[in-house]
Write a structure and sequence with these properties.
The protein is of the alpha/beta class. It is 36% helix and 21% strand. Strands 1, 2, 3, 4, 5, 6, 7, 8 and 9 form a nine-stranded mixed beta sheet that branches.
Length: 280
Amino acid sequence: MAYSNGHTSKVTIGMPVCNGEKTIRYTIENVINQTYQSWKLIISDNYSSDRTTQIIQDYARRDTRIITTSPSKPLTAEENFRYVLSLSTSTYFCWLACDDYWTNNTVLESWVRVLDNNSKYLTVFSQAKNVNYVDQTVFESPHPPIFNSPSSHDLLRGVYRLYLMNPSIIYGLHRRASLDYINDVTFTYDYSDCAFVLNQEIKGGIAILPSIDFAIGTIGYKRIVKTTGKRLSRAPYVKKVIRMLASQGTILSFFALLLSAPAIVLFYYHSIVTEFTSIK
């Protein structure tokens, strides 16, 4: 099922939310104030127990481009991400969490321009910064720089992205048609956001802009997100990486797998260290 507000919108913004009253007003205003106006914002309220429902319904009454919905039963965060995507039919799509925002009012316009003018790219994103809301105080910190792949070959782009992986790219603007493969098993394993980014890079390419256009919000202290249980499971992601790189069954696929082996080892080491040194 797709939602229509009577307008033809080139961009659908999907916002999955549960109990987001502390930040969602600012994020919605951030969308409304964009210079690019051909958008539709679909907010999926996952049975919030705070004032989120009241807030988003108030915005929906004032702006017909804002559509609120709620799933038929409570969903996991990953399921809610898939749910808002399933409701979109626009040319372009992006996810926007209720505590994230764009740092200026021309971000959406610049992202649309990149995809309009470069048919080879499936995704566009920018540099980012981290924003932490603790006791009504905002702390900003740098986010690791994100680089463009220098290669024009799909598998070599994939190897490059493995070494310089940044899962925040999932919050970029995507060609909606490139997301048709997403189904009920997508985002059901740890590091599936990394697999999503790798898929976009291999299948068409990702454009990274140099400006800091995206703020990644966190309320409280940042935690390692575990999709499948108390401990992170790395094997499903690694198997997915190997399948993607080997999919062409060519000599170059074999070469790409050899090049990616150190990246996989580094991933295991870095993820284990991060897991056990992060604040729980």
